[in-house]
DNA sequence: GGTTGTCATGAAACGCGTTTCATCCGTTAT
DNA sequence: ATAACGGATGAAACGCGTTTCATGACAACC
């Protein structure tokens, strides 16, 4: 294997000059630059990436922490992150945690040990403070709407999105409106809860705990949700479902249960996953790939920044029946 | 940052001995081993991973090449690979290619440049010969059933699986049997085609090109397939669908089109994706996570090996209607 | 003419763990 | 008693690119 030293000898310059050519630095005369380039070609030189890493102290590895890989929501974020990473010559290290504390911690420890340059939390179970404490070791990026001057964030204003969606359902005549989430305590869920409660108050509706469904993530959970619904004497007439997966499960189960959508039950999903268009599901599209790109961008950035991403309401046929 | 040299001084031993302790090598006396371990604790020493990489010449990075990330099939393989990688202290570099030649090539080039230690092809568009040529630079692992003594393989015998499934449908009385695949030219598709043709011959059935559906990968494609079906005067009474995604799309579209499943159309899916149980889809489960683990294992192994993985027939309600 | 500044260039320091090789010592085998 | 061998240990070589700092040359400015 030829190295930069051989190259220098071959081109009749110093290793510094070679390095400068390699990294496109200024202050190299055209003659020498060309000589180096020729030597590179002649020797089929390959830069030793490990030596670069040792020298620069960077690993070019970005940790990506998420609970589940097998869900379109996270998958799309990862897709965006991966694309952006490739463009920047970075690699990603996946931490599929299932919200286990220790697994999240292992990502933080790797950041502390400089085994990764930065870490992106797509979702977390650790406290914000814990993550902030590690921000001194390297960039910590969050996909959630929290106030912090230590971590970078890209987020969706779930509070506003939820409020708007609830308002839309209200305007369609719905008065018994429910919603589903996965966790009760995540930042997003908390924001939604707050928005929901505020909405009820401002519209003079009473709170019914039976209208709030938790643990909903996959299509099977939508199936279970429909079964729960059947036990209610006054079931909700509309539900905001925080994943199209779940909504899809609901639509399929509802058919079997003889529940007509949207007549008996209106649904609004989230994410605009592929299944949504197939089932004509009205949904709120989130720009997850862009979110991923943004997250990676922030992971590489110098400054702490905060970015809000917009969502899009996609009207199909699970709220209003008319074509 | 303390380094191995400081550590050696602190413990009163040579760097070699420290290295031996760090790597659990034999031939270190208990006394020295303990002294080193104490020094490690006292100084909060962290091994510089980049120095290790430079020294060993390994990157601990494994390339994973696949066409699409957003499909349960590949996602599950990646999941298995990622899990196994974590256990072995390796990291994965994803190459989402969309079957573009150049993108696949970039993975091979990285292998050549020693930027990754090995590369796993979950699916490929390049010729086998091309991949084999790169096997001299590092392990090349394939998820397909091909004869090669240069690349390692983990595979499913799609030919046998297909033959069995076709036989099952035949025994159920079906004589107009079709199948769907994504690509026409992939190893798996070719194996299936062969199995299909052989099956027709041995069962004295005639070949009808209208019964072979290509370009089927996502649920939407299942929707399109049903539309195609409606144009046929003698549509197949049973279809082998090589992804539950597609089968799911078909089931949903079939309902809207008034096609009864399984009475009018029997379906067997593949992969046992989550949606399959929800829709009571009879399917052939592939152990994709285990496949992923095996692939990674082979990527790290010294020897070229070939492993067949078994599939499982999961009977639900899209072939036989009874009970 | 002297000062200041820009461009060009290379020597040397820096980052750090792994592994080979030589050596020394004590023990077992002959 | 002596050769042979295994265990223990450290010096030194190896892997290699980046970056700081010093220096020289030349142009521009006062």
TrEMBL record, chains A, B:
GO molecular function, one term: DNA-binding transcription factor activity
Keywords noted in UniProt: DNA-binding, Transcription, Transcription regulation
CDD domains with a match to the protein in the record: HTH_LacI, PBP1_CcpB-like
Highest taxon listed in the record's lineage: Bacteria
Pfam family, one: LacI
Domain HTH lacI-type, first and last residues per copy: 2-56
This protein's record includes keyword Glycoprotein: no
Database matches in InterPro entries: HTH_LacI (IPR000843), Lambda_DNA-bd_dom_sf (IPR010982), Peripla_BP/Lac1_sug-bd_dom (IPR001761), Peripla_BP_I (IPR028082)
Name of the protein this chain belongs to: LacI family transcriptional regulator
Organism: Streptohalobacillus salinus
């Amino acid at each position: 294997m030829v190295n930069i030293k051989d190259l220098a000898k071959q081109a009749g310059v110093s290793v510094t000059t070679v390095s400068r050519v390699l990294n496109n630095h200024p202050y190299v005369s055209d003659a020498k630059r060309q000589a180096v380039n020729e030597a590179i070609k002649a020797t089929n030189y390959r830069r030793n990436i490990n030596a670069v890493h040792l020298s620069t102290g960077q690993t070019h590895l970005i940790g990506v922490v998420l609970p589940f890989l097998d869900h379109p929501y996270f998958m799309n974020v990862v897709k965006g992150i991966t694309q952006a990473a490739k463009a920047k010559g970075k690699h990603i290290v996946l931490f599929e945690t299932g919200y286990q504390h220790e697994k999240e911690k292992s990502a933080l420890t790797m950041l502390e040990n400089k085994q990764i340059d930065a870490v992106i939390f797509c979702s977390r179970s650790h406290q914000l403070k814990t993550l902030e404490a590690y921000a001194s070791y390297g960039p910590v990026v969050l996909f959630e709407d929290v106030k912090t001057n230590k971590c970078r964030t890209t987020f969706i204003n779930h509070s506003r999105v939820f409020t708007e969606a609830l308002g839309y359902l209200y305007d369609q005549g719905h008065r018994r409106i429910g919603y589903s989430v996965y966790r009760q305590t995540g930042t997003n869920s908390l924001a939604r809860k707050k928005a929901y409660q505020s909405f009820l108050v401002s519209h003079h509706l009473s709170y019914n705990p039976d209208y709030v469904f938790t643990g909903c993530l996959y299509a099977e959970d939508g199936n279970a949700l429909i079964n729960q619904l059947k036990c209610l004497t006054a079931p909700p007439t509309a539900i905001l479902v925080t994943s199209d997966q779940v909504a899809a499960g609901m639509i399929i189960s509802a058919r079997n249960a003889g529940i007509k959508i949207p007549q008996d039950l209106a649904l609004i999903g989230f994410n605009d996953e592929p299944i949504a268009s197939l089932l004509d599901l009205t949904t709120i599209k989130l720009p997850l790939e862009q979110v991923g790109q943004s997250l990676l961008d922030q992971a590489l950035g110098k400054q702490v920044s905060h970015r809000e991403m917009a969502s899009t309401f996609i009207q199909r046929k699970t709220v209003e029946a008319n074509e």
